[in-house]
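User: Quick one: structure for sequence A, then sequence B.

Assistant: Sequence A:
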Amino acid sequence: MPALDKHQGDDLDFERKLLGRLRLGDVEALGLLYDIHIDYLLDFGIYYVNDTGELEDHIHDLFLNLFKSRSKAMEIRNVRTYLAVALKRKLFKKKVSKECMMEEDRFLHLLNSSPDGIEVSPEKKWIETEQVESLTSELKLAMRSLTKHQKHIIQLRFVENLSFAEIAQTLDVSKTSARTLLYRTLKALRKEF
């Protein structure tokens, strides 16, 4: 086994070999990939999470998931980019779920009160709830008309909040193509909605 310091994570051929070994269930290969990329992932992730303990937990989960889905390991073209994008998604989902819970609480509070702070009548609450449900239903119906690829780009842009560069990398297309696809998808959605 070649020494880790000879490769420094720059030798893509070495990483391809590690991915091949990982695909076969080699835990040592997973450990070497971890050793190669842990410092980068910590530096990258600290931008999104201030708690290093929490960040390390997310990184460990990331490598556990990599091992669980090792049958697809050879599909990874650039390990560092793959891990960074996956970590960002993981951190973003956690952040979004916390924010969504807070936003839902704020939304319910706003729904139950008027702009001047006076309690809204139950009838008005019911009407507003019906309107929200109706719009949600129409949007779901419109989403059914989209292709799987179009739904995926909506997910990447508006749920995972990825930049066009990240979307382009995820979909393996140019940044311009990613923008065009999103534009056409939104146009098709508006037409149906």
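Sequence B:
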Amino acid sequence: MTTERTYHHGDLRRAVLTAALDVIAAEGPSALSLRDLARRAGVSHAAPAHHFKDRAGLLTAIAAEGHALLAAALTEASDLRDLGVRYVRFALAHPAHFQVMFRPELLRADDPELVAARRRTRDLLRTAVAARAGGGAGADDSGTGFMAAWSLAHGFATLLLTHNLDGPLDGRDPEKVFRSLAGELFRPAGNSPAG
């Protein structure tokens, strides 16, 4: 089988990751099995363990990759609202990554690659919140702005992915709706609508 030979030449890790993402997108992370992924890749049942050791190692690699992809998307943001839109866009484009990235019970929390990738995404969000507040990187020492911004983007993305907003959106563009919500919630002090 030619695909098996290709995988043995360095593509097995990517093939297993891709197959795992397909399974997660279709059935969720609980359906993941290294043995099944090996079968899908056309390799021995032990082959994926050479790259990931076990299921937690595979899910940790998916989460680290997801955070790296998210950080790359957030780096291009022009402001806090755009950062939130990019967060939502990422979740819609990478639903399998998104399902795993924020599930600590599935991951090796101390994995150096995951720790570094998480730190980068959090730092980007904290910096955007601090810039919005008009201060430096430590302007929001309480972390409430960070939590509010992250909660809004993460909650909106989660509700979209689980189709809970299908009715309320009523065909409207989710990105435009999110921009509007973010504008309302992060309106500068003294600029509230007349009421």
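Residues 2-27 form the longest helix (26 residues). Residues 1-7, 136-140 have pLDDT under 50 and may be disordered.

User: Thanks, that's what I needed.
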